[in-house]
Amino acid sequence: MTSSKASPATKSPPKAPAKPLSAAAKPVPEEAPKPVAVERPEPAPAAPAPVAPAAPRPNIIVAAPPNMPMRSGGNPMSPRPPMGRPNMPPSFAVRSPGRPGFAEAQSGPPRPPAAKIELKAGDHVVYPTHGVGTVQGIEIIEAAGMELHMIVVTFEENRMTLRVPVNKVPTAGLRKLFTQKEFEAAIDTLKGRARIKRTMWSRRAQEYEAKINSGDPIQIAEVVRDLQRNAGQPDQSFSERQIYEQALERLAAEYAAIEKIDKLTASDQLVAFAKAS
Question: Do strands 160-165 and 175-176 pair parallel, antiparallel, or not at all (unpaired)?
Fold first, then answer.
């Protein structure tokens, strides 16, 4: 008998241990794809819809109701008569009293024409806001192709020259000096009793300045009379003393020109009149 021995199984060689991957050999993670902006074409503007031509409007005839009163001429569409009360001037408003804008007579009676003033070189005149000045003559100035006749007035104290159109002399307030008889009313006012209102000084100061700039000697004398009692007193304010001196100077300038005396003497006489009250 033959005996067969099994051949020993072939053994595989041992596997070598796996080497660690180097840093360069490590797998690189895949980057996420970046979004790509896609430009969309702008839609083309829609063409405007064709506008159909407007149909001509038919003529509309409005018939007056049977009870509507006919206007003058028998035509109901004729212009309305002017609003207002019968037989009333158009200057009167047709509004009830007490409502805003009511005016019983918007235009008053016509003003009488201002008296003409004849002036010549060397005359003394009074301008409301500057006092007494001297007329130097009449100049002719050409402006815009027109000739303007101007009265030239000089003020020595202010070193100022004023030119007033001849046709504007009455409205500008330029006047001649008062006569001695007319100026007596201002002296009587100085001798009168002071009438001081019980109001704030700021309001009284505005009234006094308005009187001084009026150019009226009587109103200027009222200012001197009312402020004379505190003249030179310690309790007199600076503005009060300033207004008093301005009024006295303006009044003394005209009084000196009327009496033909110097201004200082005229001022002393006026102060004496005021203290005699």
Answer: unpaired
